[in-house]
Amino acid sequence: MENLAFEKSKDDPPLYEETSFSGNGYGNGEHRSVRPSVVSAFGHDTLDRVPSIDFYRNPGTVSGHRAIRPSLQELHEVFQKNGDLDIPDTVDDGEGSDVLENDDIEAIVPPENSAGVVKFGWIKGVLVRCMLNIWGVMLFIRLSWVFGQAGVGLGIIIILLSCVVTTLTCLSMSAICTNGVVRGGGAYYLISRSLGPEFGGSIGLIFAFANAVAVAMYVVGFSETVVDLLKVNNAIMVDEVNDIRIIGCITVVLLLGISVAGMEWEAKAQIVLLVILLIAIVNVFVGTAIPATEDKKAKGFYTSIMSENFTPSFRDGETFFSVFAIFFPAATGILAGANISGDLKLCPASVNLMSVVIAGPSGGDSIGTLLAILITGLTYLASLCASVTATVVRDATGNRNDTIAPGASCNFSIACDFGYDFSVCGTTKCQYGLMNNFQVRDYTTSGTFITAAHRESLILINVFKICLIHECLPIFILYKNNLPVWFQALCKDNIYKALHFFAKGHGKNNEPIRGYVLTFFIAVAFILIAELNVIAPIISNFFLASYALINFSCFHASYAKSPGWRPAYKYYNMWLSLFGAVLCCAVMFVINWWAALLTYAIEIFLYIYVTVKKPDVNWGSSTQAVTFVNAVNNTLTLSGVDEHVKNFRPQCIVLTGAPKTRPALLDLAHSFTKNYGLCLTCEVFVGPRVERQQEMSASMEQNQVWLNQQKRKAFYAAVASESFREGAESLLQASGLGRLRPNTLMLGFKRNWRSADTADVQEYVGVLHDAFDFEYGTVMLRLNQGLDISHILAAEEEMEKMLLEQQALEMEENGFQEGGKGFFKRARKPSQKVLATRVEVPHTSDVAKINQRLVEASSQFKKKQDKGTIDVWWLFDDGGLTLLLPYILTTRKKWKDCKLRIFIAGQPERTEQDKEEMQSLLKKFRIKCNYISVIGDLHIRPTAEKLFEDMIEPFRLHEGSKDTTQAEALRKEHPWKITDAELDHFDEKTNLQVRLNELLQESSRAAKLIIVSMPIARKGSVSDHLYMAWLEALTKNLPPTLLVRGNHKSVLTFYS
User: Fold this and answer.
1) Which residues form the Amino acid permease/ SLC12A domain (predicted)?
2) Distance of CA 170 to CAs 300, 572, 927, Å?
3) Closest CA to 476 of 524, 441, 531, 516
4) Which of 179, 546, 799, 975 could form a cystine bridge with 207, CB 3.0-4.6 A?
């Protein structure tokens, strides 16, 4: 067996030059002429290789060349044939790999020119990025309002609650990020690869929308500040609200243009901008320590007034959680690093000792995010205590003349202690103070204490620092790296077919230009709202839903206890992750219960959509692991419970061969077991096991995939055996697990028994004997046209192959070869005349008609059955299987229009009594049947005896007409033939089968399906050909017929 090309392992001596690459070297162009053995670490020539990371890479990996280890067959078979190392030529890396190319996003072939791809370390890529996202619009234009409403006490709780949510999410995210290589896709990648495409796809769209709205939030915050500047300078264009919309739309248009420029300049500039941002924050702290001027006092700026602002003062219908909802988007920057995970370098152990201790060698994302949460959280708390609540009152007029008149009393606020009376704010809305002025930072910075001559220039400087840097940079980072990048990853996975348009990237960094444009339109739509306090709660709701799923992903993966869950980050706890998920959900509902319900309704709808569509992806999610664990536990639980007749259901083992070759048999079995029972389609590969093993292995996955594509809830199993009977015997004995074992054998009637080899007939009948021995219920399907369409499928495949070859030849003749007239020139369709001259199609009309009837008959059980009857000839009590199977059919949609008719054997003189007894029995079984017929003339001798005798004539021994010696010699030479003695002994049973066929012809000729009790051949007494003749005589020239024989154990009961 040929093995795949593999890279030189670490134990290979350097003198061997094994590798020769062509193309780009990523699997599809890699090949090697001969792979010799090497002197390994074991000191002798060997094909085995020592463990190496290169053996575990995916095809087309971007992190290094993939190596293919020698296959087990190669190691085993080569030495088995001849003791030498005669290694065959190798093939391309892409063929026969044990890891499919679409198993993971790592398998994407890297761009040809990857030299200019920008990668970031944990400081630039995670820490700086998270801090710049968290320090944004809320810190500079809403923090004062938040703590004016909530006060110092509840304000600290708001910050701490936000930090708890983000810290728990960060711990969960760290565990997921360090459980393998994380590629581009951010939160979507983490959730989808952990919980599967259903959860990942649903929350992916929701989180994409949240990030797009977050762009609008930052832009509106920036626009508010610019409008305030215009207002100070009397430069309002229309009015404040429309000016916010105009400036916001202009800003987002500029962002769309800048985003196309690439990431290099932004990566270089962010450290400089972070330094300016830190200087601006320090500037605020310094400003609060400088004594206030009279102008600032008139605007409510004082020192040491924290006690005044400690208690809450909620206004305008605000509550603790509504204020929290507005503030929480300030903490949502924790995913800034994860959202560009595809552009991050692995954090080497030498970068930072702390990162190794906390997050492991690849934990740059973890340490960067945790440090960002710590630093920004302390900044918010310090800003709250030192520069907001300790220095600014809630209400101020801004009028220097609002001082306390001599002898007048004042108790409106602590401003009275500083000589100012702002009591007018109790009846009219003032312009300044924590509750009224969102630009409190403008007069808490140190720049405002310089002389008035420099005032205008310093206002511009402050606006530049506060607006452009503090708000525009987070806008850009969010716009450029969060939504478009991982929305592109979502689209590349092709979970939603309609969104695949956005998967295309441009440039060396695979820039998602189409994603930028989509973000632009969503952002513009929300910018038109022009109210930051309206936009922020929408974002909080969606971000909390995303964080809940990240936490749940970590819990779910830990709960599954899959051996593949081995995160390098150890400082997490599955119960803390679950607590984080519950906390996020609880906060969502407390903030706005109907918005939370709407969010989860959308998520459930998307989840169901993805589940129904079943995208062709397999990421080894924890959902799969939990499903496996539950299946094992449920199977073990079933094994400890005794079977009960009320819970009996047919568990079918169906001898279909390749499932698509006998569709009628599969469809009928599927009707019995769909959603409720086990259906195992089986194939026996007859021949030497060594020769058939490879064919059998190749068919396993192929046939199971076909069953899934045809939406047949069935399994496929195969065995290789020296004979059909031995293989079937192995399947009957070993199939199933615990209580999930087959109890009913289904197979097709052997139509060619008269022309088949004697051994084949003996093996076929032997399978029936084995089924009875193993106490299986047995079901045999006969269609007059036959069941096997394998020859038709083979002809169709051959025809398709010929047509494809002919079309390729036609294109060559029309000049469509490499270097032809042009790539975009339309191809002329191959003419029917040319096709007719080059493809020789058989024109035998009889054969074509037979095949047409066979195909139609094979597909008849796929369609909904018209009104008709299912005729049940329940002649022998076999435990009730003959009655249960047709009842199950009537409960299916395809058969619901078919009514049961039951025929039983009886004596002519007690027909009515037998009928009443059967009606009573059916009533007890709760099986509805309005037609019961008692057949009282089964004992009458049939008229078609001569036809039966002609049928068995070639298989008779005729020893009665020979002398004793000749008769004995014939018995030894043809032991399988039907003897005269045997025929005489079973004359009555033979006549019964012929007579039954006559009655079936009379009564059930128009039935949609006939179900008849199957006759049993006693082992050692009835020859195989006589038994096949009975079955032939019983079922010939009838509609689709099922011969059924239960295992004579009750499958029906009338007890509760």
Assistant:
1) 125-653
2) 39, 10, 59
3) 516
4) 546
The span from the CA of 150 to the CA of 1048, in Å, is 78
Rounded distance between C-alpha atoms, residue 404 and residue 298, angstroms: 12
Q: How many CA atoms lie within 13 A of 541 on its CB side?
A: 23
Q: What is the pLDDT of residues 101-141, one digit of tens each?
A: 444 434 344 444 444 555 666 676 677 777 776 776 667 67
Provide the pLDDT confidence category of residue 448 given band limits of 50, 70 and 90: very low
Identity at 970, one-letter amino acid code: L
Q: Work out the pLDDT band at 951, boundaries 50, 70, 90.
A: very high
Q: Which residues contact 437 (CB under 8 A, 6 or more apart)?
A: 144, 299, 431
DSSP 55-76: GGPPTT-SSS----PPPHHHHH
Long-range contacts of 668-672 (CB under 8 A, 24+ apart): 668/746, 668/781, 668/861, 668/1042, 669/714, 669/746, 670/712, 670/713, 670/714, 671/861, 671/888, 671/889, 671/892, 671/894, 671/895, 672/744, 672/885, 672/888, 672/889
The b-or-e profile of 104-123 (16+ CB within 10 A means b, else e) is bbbbbeebeeeeeebebbbb
- Burial track 215-251 (b if 16+ CB lie within 10 A, e otherwise): bbbbbbbbbbbbbbbeeeeeeeeeeeeebbbbbbbeb
Of 507, 481, 513, 505, the closest CA to residue 113 belongs to 507
Distance, in Å, from the CA atom of 676 to the CA atom of 665, rounded to the nearest integer, reads: 18
Answering whether pTM is above 0.85, one says no
Query: Both tokens of residue 758?
Result: 């004697």
Chain centroid offset of residue 670 CA = 25
Tokens read off for 570: 């150890």
Q: φ, ψ for residue 189 (rounded to 5)?
A: -65, -45
**How far is the first Cα of the chain from the last one, in angstroms, to the nearest whole number?**
60
- Maximum Cα–Cα distance across the chain: 150
- The string of pLDDT tens digits covering residues 993-1010 is 999 999 999 999 999 999
Which tokens belong to 916? 């009443």
Which residues have a Cβ under 8 Å from the Cβ of 738 and sit 6 or more positions away?
Answer: 635, 636, 638, 639
- Candidates 951, 950, 976; CA nearest to 763 is 976
Band of the pLDDT at 963, cuts 50, 70, 90?
confident
